[in-house]
Amino acid sequence: MKHAVRIVLVETSHAGNIGATARAMKNMSVEKLCLVRPCKFRTYDAYARSSGANDIIDNATVCNTLQDALVGCTRVYGTSARARSLEWQSVDLRSAATELGEASTREDVAVVFGNERSGLSNEDLALCHRRLHIPTNPSFSSLNVAAAVQLVVYELGQVMGAEDTAEREVAEPVAPVDDVERFYTHLQQTLEALEFLDPAKPRQLMRRLRRLYNRARPTSTELSILRGILAAADKCVAKTRGDSL
Asked: Cys-Cys crosslink for 108: which of 4, 57, 131, 225, Cβ 3.0 to 4.6 Å?
């Protein structure tokens, strides 16, 4: 599943922070980096700190204004730890990640980070729809910009990864009821042959096994694997009985 997530750094003054940001993004499969009036950043320090995420640095877009960096975005969240005299609508990190991760499959979204000294200006934050707040120690709330990016892309990655997993699961449908019923019949026969299930005193065994497999909701492929295991067990039982005659 394609996720249109844009990480925007404003006036970053240390190339190493841009490299560390690239590494954090690459870890979480976030690829688009936009830099607004950055320092000279395609440097040895940046590439070293990126630990191999060179493509993120090489493909970074450089803009003169934050407005240029946000062209095409429909949801923009600006990170800031500082309280403002005119407060923007705030959202916590996990909620923001959920909102942006889900929206990123159908629209361009961005998370904006300010510079190392003072963060985002009021003018920059005014271009954002919400202020994203990362909860920290109130007496020591300043985060390194790359560390802040790492936290944000991690939370985004959890949301985007869950959606991608759900899509893969949907791609292979759950086995139909009639196939599952044939599996239960086969399972009971094999358990009886193994003398694990006494048909005269079945108790609740098959009902409990049904409950277990119904929770798992196996796909057709998974059901075929289970039937194959049962078939192999049947052969072993038949061979053992043959050898004992």
From this structure: 4
| Burial (CB count <10 Å: 0-12, 13-18, 19+), residue 206 | middle
pLDDT digits (tens, 9 = 90+) for 122-156: 888 888 888 898 888 878 877 899 999 999 999 99
What are the chain's domains? 5-171 (3.40.1280.10), 177-244 (1.10.8.590)
**CA distance linking residue 33 with residue 35, whole number of Å:** 7
Strand partners of residue 124: none
